[in-house]
Design a protein that fits this description.
By secondary structure, this protein is mainly alpha-helical. The protein is built from 6 helices and no strands. It is an enzyme of class 3 (hydrolase).
Length: about 140
C-alpha cells in the first residue's frame, strides 16, 4: 500500500527516482496542459479535442517540441532531459522513430522532474514557449 503520509524528509530524493517514473508523471503534465489550453480557447467536440491533443502529445510532436525548447533548458534541465532520453526502453511506438521516442521520453522526464520539484512556474514558462513556437501542422 502506498504511504502518502510521508513527511518531505521521508520522500525519495528525485535524483534517485527512475527517469521512466519521472516520464510517467511528465506525460500527464503535458497532456493536462494541452487539454486545458484546447478547452479554454476552442469550442470543439470531444472527438475533435482528442484529435487536436494528439498533435501535441504524440512522441513525434514531443520530439519536435523538445528541439524547439532545448535552447531554453538550463544545464540542470538538459541533464535531466538526457537522463530520460538515455533510459532504456524495450518498446518503441509504431508511429515514431527510435530517436523521436527517446527524445519524447526525455522531454516527459524533464516535465515530471520539474513538476515533482514543485517548479510549476518553469513548466508554465516552457509550455508557453512551446505553444507560441510549435506548429502542429508543419512537416519536417
Amino acid at each position: 500500500m502506498l504511504d502518502e503520509n510521508k513527511t518531505p524528509a521521508q520522500k525519495l530524493d528525485l535524483r534517485e527516482v527512475s527517469p521512466l517514473a519521472l516520464a510517467f508523471v511528465g506525460d500527464s503534465v503535458l497532456e493536462l496542459l494541452v487539454r486545458q489550453r484546447l478547452v479554454e480557447y476552442h469550442r470543439l467536440a470531444p472527438g475533435r479535442l482528442n484529435a487536436e491533443k494528439i498533435k501535441y502529445v504524440s512522441a513525434r510532436a514531443q520530439f519536435r517540441e523538445e528541439k524547439l525548447l532545448e535552447p531554453l533548458f538550463t544545464p540542470e534541465e538538459l541533464d535531466m532531459f538526457r537522463r530520460g532520453r538515455n533510459a532504456s526502453r524495450t518498446a518503441v511506438s509504431k508511429h515514431a522513430t527510435p530517436e523521436e521516442y527517446r527524445a519524447s521520453t526525455g522531454f516527459e522526464c524533464l516535465l515530471g522532474w520539474l513538476y515533482l520539484r514543485g517548479d510549476t512556474a518553469r513548466i508554465r514558462e516552457l509550455f508557453e514557449a512551446m505553444w507560441a513556437g510549435y506548429d502542429p501542422a508543419a512537416r519536417d
